[in-house]
Amino acid sequence: MNPERVGRDGFLRLRFERRGCSTFLAQSRFTLPLQALTPLETDDGTAYLMLLNPTGGVLGGDHLATEIIQEPCTHVCLATPSATRVYRTAGRPAVLETVIKLGEGSTLEYLPDHVIPHADAALRQSLRVEMGPGSAAIILDSLASGRVAHGERWGFSEVDSRMEAFISGKPVFLNRTKIQPAAQQRAIGLMGNFDYMICMGLFAEGRNDWKQVAATMNAELETVPQVRGGVSLLSHGGCVIRYLAGSASDMTRMNMKLWDAARELVVQLPAFDHRKY
C-alpha cells in the first residue's frame, strides 16, 4: 500500500449468511476510513448493521469502496448513524463506490442518511445492486443542496451520482444524476425552494401488484404536505419514488413513512424501529 494513501483509500467487505431463522455476519474486513459495527438481530431475524466513516466526512481525493454479499435467504438492513459530509476540494473529487449482491430469496433494506456536499465539494458516487431470483430490495438515496444554514445552498462544485439495480442479470433501474451548480442556470429549476432530493427504489421479482404498491406509496406522499413527489412504475420488477423536501425534518419524516409502507408491502414485515442503535 502507498503510505500516502493511508486513510484515503477505504475498503469494506461484508458477507452475510443464513443460520436457522437468523441472518449472521459471516465475514467482515475493512480498511479505514470505512468501518462497520457489530450487527444486531431484530425480532424477525434481520441483521441490522451501521456503516461508519469515523473520520466524520469525505475529502477530495478519497476513494471508498464497499462490497456486500448476501448469501441466499438472508435479510439485511443497512443504515448510517448520520449524514455523509463531503468537504471542499481544490483538486480531485471524492469517490464512493458500493456494490451489493443478493443471493436467491434474500432481502435488502439499504437506507443511509443523506449526503451533504459542502461549498466547493466534488463527489462521484455509485451504487450497484445485483439481485438474485426471488430477492427483494428497498433502496434509499438522498442529497442535500448543501449546508443551507451556512449560506452554501448549491455552493458545491459537482455531484455525480449513479444508481443501478439488476434482477437475475437484467437491468431494471438505471439512474444518473449530475449537478454542477456553477455551470447551470440558477434561474431555471434547481428544485425551487426545496433543499433535499430523494429517490427510493422498491424492487422484487415475480410480483404482479406493482400498480397497487405505487398507489399506496403515492397516498403516503400526500400525508406530508411539505413534500412534493410521485411514483413511477418500472417496466418490470418494481417502482421508484422521487420527492423533494424543504427541510431535513420533513425529509426524515417522509423517509420513515415510506420505509414503513414499503416494508409491509414488499417485505411483508411490520414497521421497523427507526431509532439509531
Commentary on this structure:
The protein has 277 residues and is mainly beta. It has one domain (3-267). The protein is 12% helix and 46% strand. The strands form three sheets. Strands 3, 4, 5, 7, 10, 13, 16, 17 and 18 form a nine-stranded mixed β-sheet that branches. It has a seven-stranded mixed β-sheet with strand order 2-1-6-9-12-14-15, with no helix packed on it. Strands 8-11 form a two-stranded parallel ribbon. A hairpin with a 2-residue loop joins strand 1 and strand 2 (22-31). Helix 1 (210-221) runs antiparallel to helix 2 (248-267). The longest helix has 20 residues, at 248-267. The two termini are 34 Å apart.
Summarize this, please?
With 277 residues, the protein is mainly beta. The protein has two helices and 18 strands.
Largest sheet descriptor: 9 strands, mixed
Q: Low-confidence parts, pLDDT < 50 over ≥5 residues?
A: none
The amount of beta strand, in percent, is over 45%
Question: Approximately how much helix is present in the residues?
Answer: 10-25%
Number of domains: 1
Radius of gyration equals: 18 Å
What is the global morphology?
globular
Helix/strand-derived category reads: mainly beta
Give the rounded overall mean pLDDT: 91
Q: Helix count?
A: 2
Report how far apart the termini are.
34 Å
Order of helices and strands: EEEEEEEEEEEEEEEEHEEH
DSSP strand tally: 18
Q: What keywords describe this structure?
A:
277 residues, mainly beta, nine-stranded mixed beta sheet, seven-stranded mixed beta sheet, 2 helices, globular
Detail the topology: elements first, then pairings.
Blueprint (H helix, E strand, L loop, with lengths): L8 E11 L2 E10 L3 E2 L3 E2 L5 E6 L10 E8 L4 E5 L4 E3 L7 E9 L4 E5 L3 E3 L4 E10 L4 E9 L13 E10 L2 E10 L16 E9 L5 H12 L5 E7 L4 E8 L2 H20 L10
Parallel strand pairs: 1-6, 5-7, 6-9, 7-10, 8-11, 9-12, 10-13, 12-14
Antiparallel strand pairs: 1-2, 3-5, 4-5, 13-16, 14-15, 16-18, 17-18
